[in-house]
Amino acid sequence: MLLLYMKNSYSQNLFFEGDENSKNKNEIVAQIGAIKITAEEFIYSYEFGPAFPKRKDDSKRTHLNYMINEKLLAWDGYEKGLMEKEFAKGIYSDIESDLITEELFKKEILPKVDINESEIEKVIDKKLSEYEIRWLYASDSELLQNYLQQLKNGISFDALFNAQISDSVFIDDREMKSSLYNLYIKNPIFAQIVDTLSAGDISAPIHSDDGWYIIKIENIWKNIITSESEFNKLKSESINAITKSKMDILSDQYVKGLFESENPTIKRDVFNVLRSYTGKFSLSSEKYSEWELDKKLDNALTNLGLKRGEKYTGLTLVTSESSNISLDEFIIWFRNREQHIKLSKNSFIDFSKSLENLVWLMIRDKLLTAKAYQAGYDESDWVERQAGWWRDKISYSVYRNELANSVTLNYEEINQVDDKKSRTEILNEELSKKIFYRLNDLKKKYKIKINEEVLRGIKVSAENDRKAIDTYIVKRGNLIPRPAYPSIDSDWVNWE
Q1: Which fold has domain 2-111+379-495?
Q2: What is the pLDDT of residues 217-242, one digit of tens each?
Q3: Domain 129-222, second-level architecture
Q4: The model's pTM
Q5: E strands along 16-61, which residues?
Q6: Contact 39, 47 (CB under 8 A)
Q7: Residue ranges per domain, the chain?
Q8: 308-367 per-position pLDDT tens digit
Q9: Distance of alpha carbon 214 from alpha carbon 150, whole angstroms
Q10: In whole angstroms, what is the distance from residue 329 CA to residue 315 CA?
């Protein structure tokens, strides 16, 4: 599986610029009861979805069939009131807020990005410049001085390089080939030094968190552009890269301005309550006891006029000029991102800092969301369309989880045993049966209409391709980590 990342939404028209899809994106591909699937929704779901339908002979129809399955279960979830559950409402609210703030950045920051031809040419040049690099690594200053003395005494870099290769250190651990552009993406400080060197040059020592490096440029060469289409692709990639870089800078400035105007403050005693609460379920009992988090909790509660066992609802965690944020709000925010959060447990100070950084991150999210709502970006057509797709996906997912939980509960009650199958295999089979029967009932209840002409007219990047690979595209830097667009579950491959 190939893992890719997207930072912002300025490329939302990726599959709709200058082709037939743009003309037909509002056409209805399928209707399931009151739910409609447009060509636009289908294309994003297909392009950002699992690869198994793309390998089928009738790729688009295969993908659409599973979209219909999910929409049916989503509609059933609505009728069962599953979107009224606190968990479902919380996830939907976070995703809607994320969509709205994306719109804010697109409308208020993207127009300020100014790119000139000179900048584009420099990025293209970096993309075409390939470097072959080798380095010596010293974990401490003593080994570094030893390398420097040997180089001074006339020992060649190559001899020292070969001497460090062993059973545990492979050549690939000490050399690389990369474009200068990719070096700047992965390690800007390292790349800036490389950019000043010529082939054969050896750098001065470079210090990093894990030790010291001395690098040598083995070779530099320029790739040749062989066609106009290749140049246009390079230029487009370069413009996107510059846009992203400048948007990052402008976004940071925008957020800094919000913080300066709102002047948020974390209430220390309430934070200490949060820290002990978080430590209780994230730390070992030994560390929790060693760091005296129970004692710190009692001190914080005393300062707040509270006692153990009392409810702590309504505690204000953050104050700012225009609004406050409660402890409960942070806990909900934390819970919805828990699988993506890693708190440092190296020391009490590191644990406290990592938790406090999360509070500041939540403050950023809340300030941006409030600003976006205030500006009315929740009423944007693009936001409303995406929010609708996500709402259906969440309703389906919550309902599917409920079906899975009922299967698990039933399995535990009857203590089903099968020597030929594992517990997971049995549960998956039972869940598939339950979904299959439920879908059959729903297909009798709701009329399904497919517009074959619209489906045939949709242009996609890959279909009927036995070599199609899974590409999981994640939105990074957003208010909540999530796939770029909602799509069908990869689990449907088991139905093939």
Answers
A1: Triger factor/SurA peptide-binding fold (1.10.4030)
A2: 999 999 998 889 889 989 988 998 89
A3: Roll (3.10)
A4: 0.80
A5: 28-32, 35-38
A6: no
A7: 2-111+379-495, 129-222, 265-364
A8: 877 778 899 999 999 999 999 999 999 989 888 999 999 999 999 999 999 999 999 999
A9: 13
A10: 10
